[in-house]
Amino acid sequence: MAEKNVQVKTIAAVAGVVAAALLVVAYFLPYAAAVDEYREALGTMSANPYSETLGMSNEGLADISLFEYARIYSAAGELGMGDAFAAVYVPFTVAPAVLGVLTLLFAALRKPIPSIVFSVLTVAMTLLLNWDFEDRGVIPSNSYDWGIAKWVYLVAGVAVVACAVWQLVLRQQGRTK
Predict the structure, then answer these.
(1) Residue partners of 30: CB distance under 8 A and separation at least 6
(2) Predicted confidence band at 3 (pLDDT cuts at 50, 70, 90)?
(3) How many of the other CB atoms lie within 10 Å of CB of 151?
(4) Is the pTM of this model over 0.85?
């Protein structure tokens, strides 16, 4: 019976780590996906670089991850958006990556309460980003719709919390026996 309990605890921990890893991976998945017409237009301009500073092509802008948004925002001064813009938006777009890594760290260390806290903070930050993008008209727009990362963050965040709660329940059951 004790061996089965160890197996279930291991399954809960591994599932939590996998879900937390998805929070990290989501940072590199498309957060914005070009609508079909804009995707075609970007494809026809693929030989032209969008920015020498960023080393990005127009075709590369068909799907933009938060990592790529952070790169774009960090070059805001050089791209004519202003240094103050970069000072606000770079930390804002990097935060989900940092919080996701912290969630993964605590999930790997089998620390369910910090896993819950950082997972909730990660999802909250992405929801704040969603609101900001919608408010500024970045996503959705005539050019872009939401990419898969928006949904991966939400599902993975909920899964981390569920797995962490599962681990807490299993710990409590082990103490009462």
Answers:
(1) 63, 64, 65, 147, 148, 149
(2) confident
(3) 12
(4) yes
